[in-house]
Amino acid sequence: MTGLATALRTLAVTAAAGLLAVAGTVAAPAPPASAAPEPKAPREFVALSSVDPTILQEMRYTTEHDFVGEPVDGYRQPLCILTRPAAEALHRAQLRLLARGYTLKVYDCYRPQRAVDHFVRWAKDLEDERMKKEFYPLVDKSRLFADGYIAEKSGHSRGSTVDLTIVRLPAAPTRAYVPGEELLECSAPQEERFPDNSVDMGTGFDCFDTLSHTDDPRIGGEQRANRDLLRGALAEQGFVNLPEEWWHFTFKPEPFPSTFFDFPVARRSVAGH
Predict the structure, then answer these.
(1) H or E element in which residue 163 lies
(2) Per-residue pLDDT reduced to its tens digit, 213-247
(3) What distance in Å separates the CA atoms of residue 264 and residue 41, rounded to the nearest whole number?
(4) Under a CB-based contact definition with an 8 Å cutoff, are residues 201 and 209 in contact?
(5) 180: which DSSP letter?
(6) Where is the signal peptide (predicted)?
(7) Do residues 239 and 249 make contact, with C-beta atoms less than 8 angstroms apart?
(8) Does the annotation flag 65 for ligand binding?
(9) C-beta neighbour count of 171 within 10 angstroms
């Protein structure tokens, strides 16, 4: 009997172990699916600094000093990314301006679609007007879509559009924006706007106002000369100005005229290009 009892106990233990193994196999959770890798830029995209390190970069959408009042989705690092033809054309324009005692300064370059989506969500939230006094003091926020200030697609996402200005050399530093500080109207005279080392263009960057129209008749004198200097220097290299924004230029022909990219603004997006 003892031998039989021992055998039965052994069989029971073996069977229990098998059941546990089966149960463990059934109950074990599936390994988590690996996160989809972030998209990278096509090889036709480059960091502007790799083509021309002398062009100043003040990438506004990585900061809180923009019309939404916070860093914008998709801007991981303060980096200007453009298609190579656009970057090389900016380099040629820069060489001509340097000879005249000026430098270009970019505010925004390639813009991921997720950033455009962020702008759209912000524009639909009519309660969020924290930056109104500076960037759209005279425009009702409910009019931003109808008046063309915000759209669901942007040429910036195609990679050959850039927002920029001109700075006289030697370039003075621009002081940092302090979140919560008193806002100053972007359409006010230069000495009453937020300080920027740009030459006087008549308004600040991203000013939602008809005064920002490149050929607005109220702009004359030095301001007109500065706008014409910027437009002329870029037009010589194949850039076309958006008439509603003195700072907005698109290189033609665009390498990607109908593709809206969504890779993040980060060095890894163009690593090795």
Answers:
(1) strand 161-168
(2) 999 999 999 999 999 999 999 999 999 999 999 99
(3) 9
(4) no
(5) T
(6) 1-35
(7) yes
(8) no
(9) 13
Active site residue 245: yes
Q: Residue 250: beta bridge partners?
A: 161, 240
* Nearest of 109, 51, 89, 49 to residue 253 by alpha carbon: 89
Select from 84, 42, 251, 52 the least CA-distant residue to 160: 251
User: What's the mean pLDDT in 210-215?
Assistant: 98
Which pLDDT score, from 0 to 100, does residue 36 have? Answer: 75
Q: CA angle, corner 206, sides to 265 and 183, nearest 5?
A: 110
- The residue with tokens 């270009």 is 104
Q: Which two tokens stand for residue 173?
A: 């530093």
Nearest to 85 by CA among 45, 53, 42, 40: 45
pLDDT interval class at 9 (50, 70, 90): very low
SS3 106: strand
Region of residue 252 (phi > 0: left; psi between -120 and 50: alpha; otherwise: beta): beta
Q: SS3 for 108?
A: strand
Cis ω for the linkage preceding 37 (within 30 of 0): no
**156 marked as part of a ligand binding site:** yes
* Calpha distance 267→273 (Å, rounded): 10
Q: What is the pTM of this model?
A: 0.87
123-155 pLDDT tens trace: 999 999 999 999 999 999 999 999 999 999 999
**Which residue among 58, 134, 185, 245 is the active-site one?**
245
pLDDT over 50 (residue 11): no
